[in-house]
Amino acid sequence: MLEGKKRLLIIAHDNPDPDSIASGWALARVLRRICKIQVDFAYGGIIGRAENQTMTRILEVPVKPLEIVDVESFDAFAMVDCQPDTGNSSLPDGVIPTIVIDHHPLRPQTKDSPFYDVREDYGAAASILTEYLDEADVKVDSRLATALFYAIKTETQNLGREASRADARAFLKYFTSIDNEALSQIENPQISREYFAMVDQAIAGTRIYSDVAVTILHEVTNPDAVAQFADLMIRVEKIHWALTIGRFEQDLLLSLRTNLPSANAGRVIQQVVGESGTAGGHGMMAGGKVGGGASSRTRAAQMERLLRRQALEILGVDGRGVRLVRPTRS
What we know:
α1 (18-34) runs parallel beside α3 and α3 (125-135) crosses α5 (165-175). This protein is of the alpha/beta class. The chain has helices at residues 18-34, 50-58, 125-135, 142-155, 165-175, 180-187, 193-204, 224-233, 265-273, 297-315, and strands at 7-11, 38-43, 64-65, 76-80, 99-102, 115-118, 206-209, 212-219, 241-248, 251-258, 278-281, 285-290, 322-323.
């Protein structure tokens, strides 16, 4: 597929998480080994979460913001942990990636790519790339091993969420090779005061509707916060669904979580967003975006109410909610 190609750009999904970061790094190692091609690795958006910032810094991950990359200088593209036309990547318009490797449900547009490997039964893209590293006989040093291990750990919640046997094999494979000191720093990073302000904002903006928690975060400076607080709210007792909505720049971002193994969060969030934006995911976790949904405060408030109402209707719960925490009298 890459015969005659000179430069390839690997693109992670926007605001990449550990799985996307580790997978892209691993694919770069594989391609340099088997193709002797010049490879660069980039992402759209920002790396905002403290853990992810620490991961890229401590492990010295060779990834750069897409905005500083001369995209036109590349004649081949690869996507990891994402697919074309899902609204969560900055693949240039009109570009058909040569390679797509992902673990989310297969999209029709992905079939246009010359090479795609989409394994919906895998819990992490990093587990797929582990097999590529093995087949290409790439020596995995402690930095890359730590990145892949942490990716699988977070994506599957220690093999407790949507993990396959392949995920377990990869997880155990790297367990003895990781840099434990680096992993400790990644998992316990310094946290800004801004984060605690968002925690306060999330608590104040959460209402409980039967077994559904809906959090309206309003403006966020870090797009990862939307998924981060959905992960937090799904842990509230007696809650089976958690939807978080946040405003980042001009867009509305959504994150949906469930602890019901038989559910399909990806399908639910696509129904919630409808034709207003883009969305995708799989069994227990999903995300979406309404482009331009936060172009003004009035539009953002209207869209937030609409999305909340549609989510509650789809999940079959009453529209009258209660606060997560009742204010206490001083």
